[in-house]
Amino acid sequence: MQRHNGNPTADDLAAEGYIGAVRNVSFDVHQGEILIIMGLSGSGKSTIIRCITRLNDPTAGEVEYEGRDLLKVTPQELIDIRRHKMGMVFQSFGLLPHRTVLSNVAFPLEVQNLDQLEREKRAMEMIELVGLGGRENYFPRELSGGQQQRVGIARSLAVEPDIWFLDEPFSALDPLIRAEMQDEFIRLQQMLKKTIVFI
């Protein structure tokens, strides 16, 4: 795609065997802002987040974060940015079924090689923050869908990310739980003042 100077036409994409999932997207998100991306199913909303975080590599353009183009950082730099600067919550909770709530929330801190006492302390703070105090020794199968989503939220916040990506985090929940989680999200944003990209 580089030979098209970062601006392939629909015919160029088709000739290369690609489908143009997201084209000509440009936006800025400033510290403390919430950017909400809305659209129909299949319109590329999740692809945008996956491109920003480089879970999918864009075929053209730039993804700038703190003055650096994320498409040009080394694999290790990208890992470090994801581990220390980004928190992500997806539609599926992605909890590890063999780990307790405490262990699930502490997992990203374990990946950062934080000492066990420190990671468990911070994990407990996040568990309390999302209203799951007293359930830290439960396994995911022992929790409701809303509680599992709270664990996912606590886990994503445990690394104290600068930017928080939420990809339809409440879509798998029933309407009553979804309303409760949306209220919880607003409460957390008012407390933490995170920069958020919300699908």
CATH topology of the domain at 31-95 and 144-198: Rossmann fold
Helix content: 40-55%
Overall pLDDT metric = 87
**Strand tally:** 6
How does the helix and strand content classify structurally?
alpha/beta
Number of helices: 7
Strand content: 5-15%
- CATH C-level name of the domain at 31-95 and 144-198: Alpha Beta
One letter per element, helices H and strands E, the order comes to HEHEEHEHHHEHE
Q: What is the subunit organization of this protein? A: single chain
Query: Within the largest sheet, what's the order of strands?
Result: 1-6-5-4
Let me know the largest β-sheet.
4 strands, parallel
**Distance between the ends:** 27 Å
Pick out the low-confidence regions.
none
Task: Provide the gyration radius in Å.
Answer: 18 Å
How does this model look, in words?
This protein is α/β, with parallel strands linked by helices and 199 residues long. It has a domain at 31-95 and 144-198: Rossmann fold, CATH 3.40.50. It contains seven helices and six strands; from the N terminus they run αβαββαβαααβαβ. The chain has helices at residues 10-15, 45-52, 75-85, 101-111, 116-129, 145-158, 175-192; strands at residues 34-36, 64-65, 68-69, 86-89, 163-166, 195-198. The strands form two sheets. A four-stranded parallel sheet has the order 1-6-5-4. A two-stranded antiparallel sheet has the order 2-3. Helix 4 crosses helix 5 (116-129), helix 4 packs parallel to helix 6 and helix 6 (145-158) runs parallel beside helix 7 (175-192). It is globular and about 55 Å long.
